[in-house]
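Hi L.,

As promised, DNA starvation/stationary phase protection protein:
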Amino acid sequence: MSADTVSAPSIRLAFTASASLSDNLQRVLVDLIALELVGKQAHWNIVGPNFRDLHLNLDEVVDIAREGADEIAERMRAINTTPDGRPATVAAATTVPAAPEGEILTTEGVEYIVSAIEAVVATLRGVDEDIDSEDPTSSGIVEDLIGKLEQQAWFISAEVRKPVR
């Protein structure tokens, strides 16, 4: 029997995502990919007071977004749906605000990256209940990302916050 005549076995995974679950996970994926990209853009171009701390903290955000995107995409494959992380798809669908061009003063960078994180968290929170109703496993991933990203928003915003009295 030649390699040309060997057919692949017909294996079907036990759970297949509905169109709604697939769409919700895709929304999460594109926002995480966009956050990774704009986080790195800010990381490269941040200047000013507390540069080093913010520069390093931005890499933490990028790592969370990159790892989260990979986990979501692999979860999508595990539940028989196809992730789409192509640049045109991400650009067309993300809720993350566009990154500023050129150098970014640290105070402006803080404001921008916190708004980008908050956009992603809004997407995560907006889809979590629907995801949970169909697939608690995927919801657990989303909830973990909410906690990590909200913590980063707090860390970064503390760079410019004034004490509440």
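The chain has a mean pLDDT of 93.

Thanks again for sending the construct details.

K.
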